[in-house]
Design goal:
The complex is a heterodimer of chains A (714) and B (214).
Chain A (H helix, E strand, L loop, with lengths): L23 H5 L15 E7 L5 E7 L1 H4 L4 E6 L6 E2 L5 E7 L2 H9 L2 E6 L16 E3 L3 E3 L2 H7 L2 E9 L2 E2 L7 E7 L2 E6 L4 H12 L6 E3 L15 H13 L5 E4 L2 H7 L2 E2 L2 E9 L5 E10 L20 E9 L14 H18 L4 H7 L7 H15 L1 H4 L14 E14 L4 E7 L5 E4 L9 H13 L6 E4 L16 H24 L10 E4 L2 E4 L2 E7 H6 L6 E7 L10 E14 L5 E10 L7 H20 L30 E6 L3 H4 L14 H13 L10 H12 L1
Parallel strand pairs in A: 1-14, 12-13, 17-18, 21-22, 28-29
Antiparallel strand pairs in A: 1-5, 2-4, 2-6, 3-5, 7-18, 8-18, 9-16, 10-15, 11-12, 11-14, 16-17, 19-27, 20-21, 20-26, 23-24, 24-25, 27-28
Chain B lengths: L2 E3 L13 H7 L7 H6 L1 H5 L13 E7 L2 E7 L5 H8 L18 E4 L2 E4 L12 E3 L1 H4 L6 H8 L9 H14 L5 H7 L10 H16 L5
Parallel strand pairs in B: 2-6
Antiparallel strand pairs in B: 2-3, 4-5, 4-6
């Protein structure tokens, strides 16, 4: 077994150099075909009838009229008479028809009667949750009561962060053809290699009979791993329609109601400290919902886990609303917000710079040195020392209604590399094919694999034909937990190295050398350090005669071998202006200082951090699932009132990646999630710093900002 | 506990009177409802003479990227669905399906519109430009600038952004940074690519018109 390693930093031609997105032009010219753009021959359109009630029992359902409509090929009842639905949007019936309009007409002909049952859809007031609240039991560390008694300062406050929904631009859905015992699946998934098995299980078809093809996905963010009910229903409609493919995608309202969300988190938090800012105790009573399953406790106190005295209580609240799914760094943004907001409030009470308070307590974290350096770096970029002012006492406060403020928050994440297999084929004509059953979520996976293969084979990027997104290729893990780059990079390196070594063996005699004396450099196979003895790549490959080289490479998550690792930290800072007359918060600047490992492509790594920051700005200022307790409905299940940030809302964003020789030695570490964590906390803290009072709940909408200001004045 | 009929099932087909029809009556041309409403002339007299058609399919001729194409469509079919379901021009995406996000943006008689909110029948006789059209042959400088500046991630909003940006630059070939932010606020991205998009539009403007104000 050869040893595998990344080439030394100073010898890299492609790794670590800013490289454009390889599939960028396909997307920006509209040529890229997402699964929702596919139209296999004979394709029918599927549609779902969903429950208008949050909690109800179906008392009767009559599909006869729909079934007899011309052009309707199949109708299926999914929630029959006597069955209960637990949230608005639950699938009641499904139809397939020759046109999309007709499929929707058919839904309107299905007669459903419901017995409406009592519901709970809001959880922010725990007192109203009744038997829907399930306490998880108390966890105590040290002696919190004594610590609170002996403290110089104690702050106590309540905070809240609502349920938000993924709102993937390409909705959840797929095209499925189920004919005989074979299934063709065109999904929108973060899990190309395993989704076929998931669907096959539901259909009682062997995974080997399910073929999966997906070249592009329009967003997932953690919500697109499983085959889902719409996958199964599309397959069964296809079967019932003579095996014609059925396209079934959720409409926007249903997408927001049932295709996943991020759990809420509310908490009453009490923190104690000494005069010098050393935190001595933490106490929290938190509650959360992620639908009928309740919601787990965010990992609080976040990052500062070693606070010696703690009392934690958490209650899961079951509400009649669609279920939670993984969301970019599950539970971390909530935990970072709750913790960093409480710390900032404590700093304000002590009349201390929060930068100093965070620094003072880094001993409670697992990466003291990293955070210390990052706080310094972020502060330098933000000019924190010069520009920070005590809460509500900024110079702008004397000159009119617009107040400016700074805030900070912290992040941590694991990452690592998922299980991945790669096959590199070198053909006698010199062409190279790299195959992995992975997916590119827009994170730049295609580009990264191509860079690693080209670097290893001494070829230009254009010489590599990359194939992904198909279940025929070697299996690769699901894209979750920021593990894709750490999975595909080592598997590609190993596979390309193995193929290259085979080529060296075939070429060595012609160069009068042994294989271990050869190197692949600039499109040639040559003696190491002696370009005079060399063969152009194509001439070298011709030595293969008629047989091609095809070599595998594997990443085993448990054997990183120095190629990848996990565990990062980061600091984020926000600079905002708040108009105290209108309540509108404006982003001025956002700084993300992010710990990382070996960076394959800094250009797209930076884009990941921009994206994470902007997603966090959306959640801090705009996003909220608004449930109506009277009707049980999700009131803003659309994109007018489920608000996302627009291009004018984000301010300036400055990214600093810690690319250093020391970090490079850690190998590849994923970056998708960590920079999405501290955004809400830092913006909430900046608003408190600007206006002199905490707005306890996010998003920081105008009404909440004005409400907080009025509360202060009352 | 009461038993009710499903209120989601209206007696008449949902689209017999729709927001789409309303917007059409208001004379929408620019893709922004407010602008349409301010167009007094359009309010005073509907642009299209009323003639009952449908509900069955009728021949509809659309001039797409300079080429007339005749389709047999129900009058209720939107321009977006005509492009995607009947012509396989899938660059324009269906995302919000109600004129909020801009992923379906095409250019109609020189103005960007949300094609999810234009009926195909109303697009007859107008010049329809799609993302496929502006990049047939050589990629449009905007498409290239989106790659150069990484103004995209998953890419689902990108064709809409490119078309909105093209219409914007056609009217304002030499925009400032602030004008770009203003001009493209009708499109939404979920991955968070706005930093690259802002830069891409400024760079494409230079490339197209030799602008220098950026």
């Amino acid at each position: 077994m050869p040893e595998y390693s990344w080439p030394p930093m100073d010898e890299r031609r492609l790794i670590g150099k800013p490289t454009k997105r390889r599939d960028g032009l396909e997307k920006s010219t509209g040529r890229a075909k997402y699964s929702s753009d596919q139209k296999p021959p004979g394709m029918l359109f599927g549609a779902l009838l969903t429950s208008p009630y949050a909690h109800a029992r179906v008392t009767s359902i009559d599909t006869s009229e729909a079934e007899h409509m011309q052009g309707v090929t199949a109708v299926r009842v999914l929630t029959g008479a006597g069955k209960e639905v637990q949230w608005e949007g639950t699938e009641i019936a499904a139809v397939a028809a020759v046109s999309e309009e007709l499929a929707n007409d058919a839904l309107r002909k299905i007669k459903v009667q419901y017995e409406v049952l009592p519901h709970l859809v809001r959880e922010e007031d725990l007192a109203k949750a009744g038997n829907r609240a399930k306490p998880a039991g108390e966890q105590v560390t040290g002696d919190p009561d004594k610590a609170f008694q002996e403290a110089d300062a104690v702050v106590e406050a309540a905070y809240g962060i609502p349920v938000i929904t993924h709102c993937c631009l390409e909705p959840h859905g797929n095209i499925v053809q189920f004919a005989g015992d074979k299934v063709n699946l065109w999904p929108s998934t973060q899990n190309v290699s395993a989704i076929g098995g998931d669907l096959g299980k539901s259909l009682e078809v062997p995974a080997a009979n399910v073929h999966v093809e997906m070249q592009y996905i329009g967003g997932g963010f953690g919500s697109k791993f499983a085959a889902d009910n719409w996958g199964v229903q599309a397959a069964l409609l296809s079967k019932a329609s003579g095996g014609k493919p059925v396209k079934m995608y959720l409409d926007r309202a249903t997408e927001l109601k049932i295709a996943g969300n991020r759990p809420s988190a509310f908490a009453k938090i009490k923190v104690a400290a000494k005069k010098d800012g050393t935190i001595t105790a933490w106490q929290s009573e938190s509650w959360a919902t992620g639908g009928m399953g309740g919601g787990g406790m965010p990992p609080i106190p976040y990052v500062f886990t070693e606070i010696p005295n703690k009392r934690l209580n958490h209650t899961a609240v079951a509400v009649n609303a669609g279920g939670a799914r993984a969301w970019r760094a599950p539970n971390h943004p909530q935990a970072s917000f709750l913790t960093c907001a409480a710390f900032e409030d404590l700093a304000a009470k002590l009349r201390m710079d929060p930068l100093e308070l965070f620094n003072k307590n880094l001993g409670y974290t697992a990466r003291e040195a990293t955070y210390k350096a990052q706080l310094q770096k972020a502060a330098d970029i933000m000019e924190w020392q010069k520009r920070w002012h005590p809460r509500g006492e900024g110079p702008s406060s004397k000159n009119g209604p617009v107040k400016q403020g700074l805030g900070l928050a912290i992040n941590t994440w694991g990452g690592g590399g998922h299980a991945s297999q790669c096959r590199t084929t070198i053909n006698p004509d010199g062409s190279v094919v790299v195959e992995i059953g992975t997916q590119d979520l827009g994170t730049g996976t295609r580009t990264a694999i191509t860079i690693v293969a080209a670097e290893t084979l001494g070829l230009p990027l254009s010489a590599i034909t990359l194939r992904i997104g198909n279940s025929d290729y070697p299996p690769d893990g699901a894209s979750g937990g920021s593990t894709t780059i750490g999975g595909v990079s080592p598997s590609t390196l190993k596979s390309a190295t193995n193929a290259r070594n085979k080529l060296f063996a075939a070429v060595a005699p012609a160069l009068g050398a042994t294989p271990d004396q050869l190197a692949a450099v600039d499109g040639r196979i040559q003696l190491k350090g002696d370009a005079s003895k060399s063969l152009p790549w194509q001439d070298a490959c011709r030595k293969l005669g008629t047989s091609k080289i095809s070599e595998m490479g594997e990443n085993n998550p448990r054997q990183p071998g120095g190629l990848m690792s996990q565990g990062v930290g980061g600091i984020q800072m926000a600079d905002v202006s708040v108009d105290t007359e209108t309540g509108i918060v404006k982003m001025n600047k956002f700084v993300a200082v992010q710990d990382c490992g070996l960076i394959i492509n800094p250009k797209l790594a930076e884009s990941q951090i921009h994206g994470a920051a902007i997603m966090g700005i959306c959640a801090a200022l705009f996003e909220e699932r608004v449930m109506d307790q009277q009707s049980g409905k999700y009131l803003n299940a659309d994109m007018e009132f489920y608000k996302l940030a627009g291009i004018a809302d984000i301010g300036e964003i400055v990214v600093h990646l810690d690319i250093t020789p020391e970090n490079d030695k850690r190998g590849v570490i994923g970056l998708g999630e960590p920079p999405a964590i501290g955004v809400i906390g830092s913006i909430s803290n900046a608003v408190a710093n600007a206006i002199g009072v905490r707005v306890p709940h996010v998003p920081l909408t105008a009404d909440r900002v004005l409400g907080a200001l009025e509360g202060r004045n009352a | 506990m009461s038993s009710k009929n499903d209120p989601e099932v209206p007696r008449k087909p949902k689209r017999s009177f729709s927001r789409r029809g309303f917007i059409r009556g208001a004379g929408i041309g620019s893709g922004v409802l407010g602008v349409g409403l301010l167009d007094k002339k359009a309010l005073a007299a509907p642009a299209v003479e009323t003639k009952a058609v449908g509900p069955g399919a009728i021949p509809i001729t659309l001039k797409i990227n300079g080429k007339p194409q005749t389709l047999n469509l129900e009058p209720r079919v939107t321009l977006l669905d005509a492009l995607r379901n009947h012509l396989e021009l899938t660059g324009a995406k269906r995302v919000c399906d109600r004129a909020t996000c801009g992923a379906c943006t095409v250019i109609l008689n020189g103005k960007s519109v949300y094609s999810c909110t234009v009926l195909a029948i109303d697009a007859q006789g107008k010049d329809i430009e799609t993302v496929e059209g502006i990049s047939s042959g050589k990629p449009h400088p905007l498409s290239e600038a989106f790659v150069d500046n990484d103004g995209q991630q998953c890419g689902y909003c990108t064709p809409g952004f490119v078309m909105a940006a093209k219409a914007f630059l056609d009217h304002n070939p030499n925009p400032t940074y602030e004008e770009v932010k203003e001009g493209l606020c009708g499109n939404l991205c979920r991955c968070g690519t706005y930093v690259g998009v802002r830069q891409a539009v400024l760079e494409a403007a230079k490339e197209i018109k030799g602008g220098t104000r950026a």
